[in-house]
Amino acid sequence: MGEFTIKMPDVGEGVAEAELVEWHVKPGDPVREDMVLAAVMTDKATVEIPSPVSGKVLWLGAEVGDTIAVKAPLVRIETSAEAAEAAPDSVPEALAEKVLDQPVAVSSRSEAGAAAQAKRPAPEPAPAPRETPSFSAKPLASPAVRLRARESGIDLRQVTGTGPAGRITHEDLDLFLSRGAGPVAAPAGLVRKTAVEEVKMTGLRRRIAEKMSLSASRIPHITYVEEVDMTALEDLRATMNRERKSEQAKLTILPFLMRALVRTAAELPGVNATFDDHAGIIHRHSAVHIGVATQTPAGLMVPVVRHAEARGIWDCATELSRLAEAARTGTATRDELTGSTITISSLGAIGGIASTPVINHPEVAIVGVNKIAVRPVWDGAQFVPRKIMNLSSSFDHRVIDGWDAAVFVQRLKTLIETPALIFVEG
Amino acid sequence: MKEISCKLLVLGAGPGGYVTAIRAAQLGVNTVIVEKAKAGGTCLNVGCIPSKALIHAAEEYDKLRTAASGKSPLGLSLNAPAIDLGRTIAWKDGIVGRLNSGVTGLLKKAGVKAVIGEGRFVDGKTVDVETETGLQRIRAEALVIATGSAPIELPDLPFGGNVISSTQALALTKIPETLAVVGGGYIGLELGTAFAKLGSKVTVLEALDRILPQYDADLSKPVMKRLGELGVEVFTGTAAKRLSADRRGLFAEENGRAFEVPAEKVLVTVGRGPVTEGWGLEEIDLDRSGGFIRIDDQCRTSMRGIYAIGDVTGEPMLAHRAMAQGEMVAEIVAGRKRSWDKRCIPAVCFTDPEIVGAGLSPEEARTAGIDTRIGQFPFQANGRAMTTLSEDGFVRVVARADNHLVLGIQAVGHGVSELSATFALAIEMGARLEDIAGTVHAHPTQSEAFQEAAFKALGHALHI
């Protein structure tokens, strides 16, 4: 019996460490070659780690959630004696196979390169097995027909061949296409389409899916929508942008909202929290790390403006624009994408009138920003045009009651409608 | 450090690599190819092409010797033929040189940027190349690994001195008096036969119980017979041990019986292994399959954006497989829908006589649980074969019993390598026995034996 240590592979793109997100095996489990042992996640993708050998799991080198450095031992597997010798660097395997093909018996030598050869002293009588092409599984068609089918997105297994021995001819393909079964059917009129495109869920998309499932299945959401008059804040914002210094980033409404959140969180610490539901502990954070949901070409990312409580409004704006750019170009680091204590979700101009934001687990609150629209508002004597915006905010109802949620949003509303309050000392 | 970016980077300019690069460039993909030595890889420089040149020269010389011995049934005679191996090798090098510059020219014409030097992976998207003018960093969106294979060394008979690989055997300028060939696969037998024809006393040592183990006994029998006529001694079930003290012999062992084989040179041809070291593969840690890089039906490796083609991905290690894979990968990178759907990869063994196979052998069809009809036609009954003194061998067709679909075709005989095209075409097109039988084959040619084999399988051969 031997032991094979699988190290954390370099998952590429300059990643020096990765987070273990799932074990597919536990100590004592038997494993086959190629079986998936674990999944690790980098900032950009989740990578499955397959087993290069068959054997039995002896030891796992980390727990789910641990960050593991590249090349650190991950799993130890007990292997049969044969594989064990080739194991430490796994390269002599090639040699071993080739020697099987042409076994010229050699005397035992112990140096690394010879190890694989030396362990198989007896010639194998049978010739090396060759790949046996499977004919029955493949539809019968000439290369030209196969190419046409592939380019038209047609699976030839669905086409009936009328040629000799069931061969699929060009005419069979024409017939199949003319029935509207394929995407390149004749353009005349409306045709039925049956093609289904399979898109494998990988990388960031998969990570988003996992996070969303976790949030939606674990957290009982309560969503509260309130209308906020943005007219005063928009006037202030316009003035500040007009007078800003050239090195200052242009203000959107988000930095105002961030500063308002900081103030509200100081008064209502229950919302700026993370909930460890396994341990049953709510962590109320004094730091306000604000995640800002950002659309990138690859999908949704949440860069984090750290310590918003210690940043002025211009600093918030600068940091936010830097992080958003880093997320879009894929250069944001792991630290910049994790660790938020509360999240803002904004779709800007396409923000709609209301939304049901999904909480960024394990946080307990998320503030969704809807679109600003000029609406007529009754001021007691007449209708006046005001800039109105809805805030759609979700809360973890296990931690925050409806009453508290409403108090929080109303406080936020007050600050935004009278933006001077955001900047008042004390 | 200089830095360039491209859409596609190809590592290795062998038949797989250069075809990938040319096809990609044709499709408008910005392509860079890295090669540390000369364009053309093993095939063109130290494999297929030079070995065929040497085999041809040896065959011509052998014909002259037959005539000089007065045994030519054609009534030819001449005095004291001679060969100047130095000139033969120079002629061979001339062909290789022409093809080298041909490939280089094709790459240039297609607009591929060639970088000469040792490439090393930095990460899955970046390769550093040590060029004559300094370090060149290349960033690519997609990479193709086409680093090929190299002869496997035996621990007790390391290459060097009198122990040579196929590469050195193709560069000998003096015919060795005695040559021991370790490994009776196709490379060893092709070269062993050539040197026997050039006048060497050749001994073949094979550990298995027969030579050419990938072919069935019917196919290898004519080759065995010819080796006997050429005075080549073949020891099967025999292990090569070590060089004798005077380095003029090789100790071998057959069933515990040790003996010495005269060997001015020892040619070791026990197989080829993938070239997976020396270019930073450890930096990216791709999945392997028995030491070869594991690929799927689109030649994708375990890391996104990295493809592998050719010998580095395993058997069958054939230039035409690498080229077909390369063409496919180039088209995939250019955004076309492609996957590997070939029915067969024909394989040719340039022994005397030649062996060619495409598709399933009778044994493989049996193993796959298919009921078969087999037709075999001997060249003894083929007029063209008689007129070229090439009566040894046959063509054999393996078809399904139920619908007569041709599953595999094998042949052994003089010049049958050229039949590989028609064999492969029949299988790719999904031909039935009736299709082959119903195609008019020109008379008098050896290809008639193919049609007759189909007739035979249908139960009505005409000329036997």
Automatic annotation (TrEMBL), chain A:
<dbReference type="GO" id="GO:0016407">
    <property type="term" value="F:acetyltransferase activity"/>
</dbReference>
<dbReference type="InterPro" id="IPR023213">
    <property type="entry name" value="CAT-like_dom_sf"/>
</dbReference>
<dbReference type="GO" id="GO:0031405">
    <property type="term" value="F:lipoic acid binding"/>
</dbReference>
<dbReference type="InterPro" id="IPR001078">
    <property type="entry name" value="2-oxoacid_DH_actylTfrase"/>
</dbReference>
<comment type="function">
    <text>E2 component of the 2-oxoglutarate dehydrogenase (OGDH) complex which catalyzes the second step in the conversion of 2-oxoglutarate to succinyl-CoA and CO(2).</text>
</comment>
<protein>
    <recommendedName>
        <fullName>Dihydrolipoamide acetyltransferase component of pyruvate dehydrogenase complex</fullName>
        <ecNumber>2.3.1.-</ecNumber>
    </recommendedName>
</protein>
<feature type="domain" description="Peripheral subunit-binding (PSBD)">
    <location>
        <begin position="140"/>
        <end position="177"/>
    </location>
</feature>
<feature type="region of interest" description="Disordered">
    <location>
        <begin position="106"/>
        <end position="142"/>
    </location>
</feature>
<comment type="subunit">
    <text>Forms a 24-polypeptide structural core with octahedral symmetry. Part of the 2-oxoglutarate dehydrogenase (OGDH) complex composed of E1 (2-oxoglutarate dehydrogenase), E2 (dihydrolipoamide succinyltransferase) and E3 (dihydrolipoamide dehydrogenase); the complex contains multiple copies of the three enzymatic components (E1, E2 and E3).</text>
</comment>
<comment type="pathway">
    <text>Amino-acid degradation; L-lysine degradation via saccharopine pathway; glutaryl-CoA from L-lysine: step 6/6.</text>
</comment>
<keyword id="KW-0012">Acyltransferase</keyword>
<dbReference type="GO" id="GO:0004149">
    <property type="term" value="F:dihydrolipoyllysine-residue succinyltransferase activity"/>
</dbReference>
<dbReference type="InterPro" id="IPR036625">
    <property type="entry name" value="E3-bd_dom_sf"/>
</dbReference>
<dbReference type="InterPro" id="IPR004167">
    <property type="entry name" value="PSBD"/>
</dbReference>
<dbReference type="Pfam" id="PF00364">
    <property type="entry name" value="Biotin_lipoyl"/>
</dbReference>
<keyword id="KW-0450">Lipoyl</keyword>
<dbReference type="Pfam" id="PF02817">
    <property type="entry name" value="E3_binding"/>
</dbReference>
<dbReference type="InterPro" id="IPR000089">
    <property type="entry name" value="Biotin_lipoyl"/>
</dbReference>
<feature type="domain" description="Lipoyl-binding">
    <location>
        <begin position="3"/>
        <end position="78"/>
    </location>
</feature>
<comment type="similarity">
    <text>Belongs to the 2-oxoacid dehydrogenase family.</text>
</comment>
<keyword id="KW-0808">Transferase</keyword>
<dbReference type="InterPro" id="IPR011053">
    <property type="entry name" value="Single_hybrid_motif"/>
</dbReference>
TrEMBL record, chain B:
<keyword id="KW-0676">Redox-active center</keyword>
<protein>
    <recommendedName>
        <fullName>Dihydrolipoyl dehydrogenase</fullName>
        <ecNumber>1.8.1.4</ecNumber>
    </recommendedName>
</protein>
<feature type="active site" description="Proton acceptor">
    <location>
        <position position="443"/>
    </location>
</feature>
<dbReference type="InterPro" id="IPR006258">
    <property type="entry name" value="Lipoamide_DH"/>
</dbReference>
<feature type="binding site">
    <location>
        <position position="311"/>
    </location>
    <ligand>
        <name>FAD</name>
    </ligand>
</feature>
<dbReference type="InterPro" id="IPR001100">
    <property type="entry name" value="Pyr_nuc-diS_OxRdtase"/>
</dbReference>
<dbReference type="GO" id="GO:0050660">
    <property type="term" value="F:flavin adenine dinucleotide binding"/>
</dbReference>
<dbReference type="InterPro" id="IPR023753">
    <property type="entry name" value="FAD/NAD-binding_dom"/>
</dbReference>
<keyword id="KW-0520">NAD</keyword>
<dbReference type="Pfam" id="PF02852">
    <property type="entry name" value="Pyr_redox_dim"/>
</dbReference>
<dbReference type="InterPro" id="IPR036188">
    <property type="entry name" value="FAD/NAD-bd_sf"/>
</dbReference>
<feature type="binding site">
    <location>
        <position position="52"/>
    </location>
    <ligand>
        <name>FAD</name>
    </ligand>
</feature>
<dbReference type="GO" id="GO:0006103">
    <property type="term" value="P:2-oxoglutarate metabolic process"/>
</dbReference>
<feature type="binding site">
    <location>
        <begin position="147"/>
        <end position="149"/>
    </location>
    <ligand>
        <name>FAD</name>
    </ligand>
</feature>
<keyword id="KW-0274">FAD</keyword>
<feature type="binding site">
    <location>
        <begin position="317"/>
        <end position="320"/>
    </location>
    <ligand>
        <name>FAD</name>
    </ligand>
</feature>
<keyword id="KW-0285">Flavoprotein</keyword>
<feature type="disulfide bond" description="Redox-active">
    <location>
        <begin position="43"/>
        <end position="48"/>
    </location>
</feature>
<dbReference type="InterPro" id="IPR012999">
    <property type="entry name" value="Pyr_OxRdtase_I_AS"/>
</dbReference>
<dbReference type="GO" id="GO:0004148">
    <property type="term" value="F:dihydrolipoyl dehydrogenase (NADH) activity"/>
</dbReference>
<comment type="similarity">
    <text>Belongs to the class-I pyridine nucleotide-disulfide oxidoreductase family.</text>
</comment>
<feature type="binding site">
    <location>
        <position position="271"/>
    </location>
    <ligand>
        <name>NAD(+)</name>
    </ligand>
</feature>
